[in-house]
Amino acid sequence: MNDYKTIDLQQWTCLNEEGDQGSGLIYINPLEPDVLLKTSRRAEEASRENTVKEFHIAKAIYDLGVPTPRMLEIVKLDDRLGFTSEWLKNKKSYARLAGEDPGLIDSLAARMAAHGHELHSTQTLGSEWIPSMKEMMLQAVGSTLMVEGKTKEELMRFVEDLEDAPTLLHGKFNFTNIIEDHGRIYWIDLSRAAHGLPMFDLGHFYLYCHYFAKKSRVNNIAHMNDEQIMQFWNRFAFHYNGPEGLDSFEAQCKRFAGLALIFIGYLQVLTDQERAYLGKLAAFLLG
User: Hey, CA dihedral for 102, 103, 108, 110, is it positive or negative?
Assistant: First the structure.
């Protein structure tokens, strides 16, 4: 393990809610009031590598001028690694803001669409830390067991024909990962950032709003009920695409949502039952 600075966690307070089973743990320290510490729950080599990767991805994106919390340094904690970053103490996601005042949904969706366009016009300039989404998707499709036969062959050809665009993708593009703090916006949770066609991000957001957000756990994270989530999506789609060709835009988002589902299945370990269910959903979305 590299010679990273060692941090004593006894001086830090964990912010994660009890029962939160996410992969990361978040800490603060009253002696360092502007610093946030994030670390994995696990100590195996893969988790340490992912921590280093997440740090460098976020730093590379910050260096491109994208509004995101400033990365500080990678640190060592017992047998785990973590990293410190700027702490935005008064942040609220667009999802929380919309949940607290549903009357803001249209304006928040319009602002997210505008900020999304800015994000999706950012050139990644060949950064070694920002991979190709097309290349990763080809690996995902090639190895997936979620779809088979003709569907898989057609899907592979579809991805092969896509442009390998040099523009920035968030990777987990949705209204929980755009926040406001003192009137400024920031993108957070950039561990899956890549470069490619913006439709990869839009497909992920479509999948989140139309399917994932119907699950109670995600519904709680979104801070909105199903009707409000769909209202947010509809207004976002209108503002991002414009009034012309919305049906075509939605159809394209739906197809890329199927790709997003294949990619999520590639990144996670699925049971046979989960693979069968998600495979049927992916096939439906892909048309």
Answer: positive
Cβ burial, residue 91 (10 Å; 0-12/13-18/19+)? middle
Pairing of strands 5-6, 71-77: parallel
State residue 218's pLDDT score: 66
Q: Are residues 37 and 124 located together in one domain of the fold?
A: no
| Cα 194 from chain centroid (whole Å) | 10
Asked if residue 208 and residue 279 are part of one domain, the reply reads yes
DSSP letter for each residue of 33-45? EEEEEEEES--SH
The CA R_g of the chain, rounded to the nearest whole Å, is 19
Count of positions (residues) in the chain: 287
> What is the Cα–Cα distance from 240 to 256, expressed in whole angstroms?
16
The identity of residue 93, as a single letter, is S
Tens digit of each residue's pLDDT (9 = 90 or more) over 179-223: 999 999 999 999 999 999 999 999 999 999 999 877 766 667 888
pTM assigned to the model: 0.94
Are 217 and 247 in a shared domain? yes
**Segment (H or E) for 147:** none
Q: Token pair 């999706």 is at which residue?
A: 120
**Domain limits at 170?**
92-286
Q: Which two tokens stand for residue 71?
A: 């990365």
**Tokens coding 155:** 């899907």
Sheet-wide strand order for 178-181: 92-93, 178-181, 184-187
- Check whether 1 has a pLDDT greater than 60: no
